[in-house]
Design a protein that fits this description.
9-stranded mixed β-sheet; alpha/beta; single chain; 21 strands; 470 residues
Length: 470
């Protein structure tokens, strides 16, 4: 009988070692190697048994190398989640045999989103495994969600099976008996296997359980959704190998004090990672936001300085976002620089450009920046609106209503071109804006006659500020 062996694993990145090491050679962190015992058989026979019972492939099929020309090209038939925002982030739906990791802050709405989604899929048999909540708690939440749904409670919950279990081997036994079309694990940090001698949520347990679920998903064709925790640094808890194992990593973001929730794809083997889904948290669940521009723009900033509207794009979706800035004299010796919803290092760069190239002295002033609505935007086209908002607050002069802008600012003060300019202009025109400032380079090939909005092309930041403030 084979003996168990001792391994050392980095709790930060999952790097393995046969002996204890002070500094991890992979991530460079100190004192992160933890000892754990590996059983002689960590292949989890239960996973193979469950997959065998679900799999419909022929028994005599053998895996063999194929030439690239011999592989048939066909589109994977995706499983629709009956949720436009979630399907967009997934790349068009859930791929059979895929494994998806959904992460987010505590209380952000991960379990609510998952339960709400499977309640809208009455035609699919779903096994919901919960290691954190009781069946009674899930029942109360489902009734609250169904109260606002168009589906009847009997039709929506007929094919949903709830299992409160934390043993991986017991979960696979139930999977073999139930034969589901979709498996949800809430959460992966609460599941433990008997093959590893450590507590649930440890590096070894998370890695082995995720690997066993991956083998089950790939061999059976049943998609698996894992819900994961977030650590204090804001990253997914557990070893970094967890993100490498899964096919798709989705981050559920947002401030609990705001009603908006952002669903962002960090990794996706079957689609784009630049897609974005927006939800509004309500008393009876999450509501899909089809037009976020109207919700992200407040209508009462007439005559207020420090506010500029930018036409941004996340993925393939354009929307207008409000940028707020406040510039005041520094109360202490060192001026403060603070940004909410925007990269602070890029804010420091834009302030340096504003001081060096335009001539406005901001060295002894505090600058506070906020993206309205709790949204975090990474589009470079926000640069022009940030500079305009900062300057508007500095001189205490409001920007006239009906103006928006889009443009990336370079270190020499030039306004660089941005992508999908026609979509940005069309979104601004649809919401009633009368003027838009864009980079002059984007005018090449642009038909101005298609738009009723007034287009102002600029080459430098000085030109844009001159158009705005005269």
């Amino acid at each position: 009988m084979a003996k168990d062996k001792i391994m050392y694993v980095c709790s930060n990145c999952g790097q393995e070692s046969a002996k204890w090491i002070g500094k991890c050679p992979a991530c460079g962190q100190w004192n992160t190697f933890k000892e754990f015992r590996v059983a002689s058989d960590t292949g989890t026979a239960a996973a193979r048994s469950a997959a065998q019972s679900v799999r419909s492939a022929k028994a005599n099929d053998k895996n063999k190398p194929l030439r690239l020309s011999e592989i048939a090209t066909k589109d994977e038939k995706r499983m629709s989640m009956n949720d436009v925002e979630l399907d967009r982030v997934l790349g068009g739906g859930l791929v059979p045999g895929s494994i998806v990791l959904l992460g987010g802050e505590p209380g952000i709405g991960k379990s609510t989103l998952t339960l709400q989604t499977i309640l809208n899929m009455p035609e699919r048999k779903v096994l919901y495994v919960s290691g954190e909540e009781s069946a009674h708690q899930l029942k109360m939440r489902a009734e609250r969600l169904l109260s606002s749904s168009t589906n009847t409670p009997q039709a929506s919950s007929e094919n949903i099976l709830i299992l409160t279990e934390t043993s991986l081997e017991a979960i696979f036994e139930h999977i073999r008996d139930v034969n589901p079309q979709l498996v949800v694990i809430d959460s992966i940090q609460t599941i433990a296997t008997e093959d590893v001698d450590s507590s649930p949520g440890s590096v070894s347990q998370v890695r082995e359980c995720a690997a066993a679920l991956l083998r089950f998903a790939k061999s059976s064709g049943v998609p698996v959704i894992l819900i994961g925790h977030i650590n204090k640094e804001g990253t997914l808890a557990g070893p970094k190998i967890l993100e490498h194992i899964v096919d798709t990593v989705i981050q559920f973001e947002g401030d609990q004090h705001y009603m908006y929730r952002i669903l962002r794809s960090i990794k996706n083997r079957f689609g784009s990672t630049s897609e974005l889904g927006i939800y509004e948290m309500q008393q009876n669940g999450l509501r899909q936001v089809s037009n976020p521009s109207e919700l992200l723009l407040t209508q009462d900033h007439e005559g207020l300085s420090g506010i500029a509207i930018s036409s941004a794009i996340e993925g393939v979706r354009p929307f207008l976002v409000e940028t707020q800035a406040l510039v005041s004299s520094a109360a202490y010796g060192t001026p403060q620089r603070s940004a909410t919803g925007f990269d602070q290092r890029r804010l420091n760069m834009l302030l340096a450009v504003l001081e060096k190239r335009v001539g406005f002295k901001l060295m002894q002033k505090d600058v506070f920046l906020n993206i309205a609505g709790g949204l975090r935007v990474t589009d470079m086209a926000m640069d022009l609106s940030i500079i305009a908002a900062v300057l508007s607050s500095n001189v205490d002069t409001p920007i006239e209503s009906g103006w928006c802008m889009a443009g990336e600012v370079g270190l020499s003060g030039e306004v660089r071109p941005v992508s999908r300019i026609e979509q940005r202009i069309a979104e601004a025109e649809k919401l009633g804006f009368m003027n838009i400032i864009i980079p002059k380079y984007n005018m090449q090939g642009l038909d101005k006659k298609r738009f009723n909005i007034e287009i102002h092309p600029v080459r430098k930041v000085e030109e844009a500020l001159r158009v705005l403030f005269g």
